[in-house]
Amino acid sequence: xxxxxxxxxxxxxxxxxxxxxxxxxxxxxxxxxxxxxxxxxxxxxxxxxxxxxxxxxxxxxxxxxxxxxxxxxxxxxxxxxxxxxxxxxxxxxxxxxxxxxxxxxxxxxxxxxxxxxxxxxxxxxxxxxxx
Length: 131
Description:
The longest helix has 7 residues, at 18-24. By secondary structure, the chain is mainly beta.
C-alpha cells in the first residue's frame, strides 16, 4: 500500500442513506438540512502514518482531525462532538470508532469512499479527486 495513497483534495460527488444515518446518530434537523447534498471538500495531508484530515463546508466552516495511525487522538464528529479515538489502518482502509458510529475511509478507483455505520444503517459518501 502506497504511503501517500490518501493525500489530496476531494469534492463530494454522491452519498447513500444520508437522512437515515444522521437521524440515527441524532444530528439536529438544522445540521441535517445543512449537510444534505453538501459539496464538502475533504483535504487530506499525509506524512507516513500522520494525517491531517480537513473538511471544508460551504459557507466557510471547517472541521479538522489530526491523527497518527495506531495512536489515540482527539477527534471531532460530524455533529461537532469531541472525543478520543485510535485510528487504525486495515487493508489499506482507515478505520475509526466514533462515539456512535464506525467509520472507514479508502481510496477506490481514484475516489475517496467513506462509510459510516450506526445500528445497521450504512451511510456511504463518495468524493472525486480535484487536486
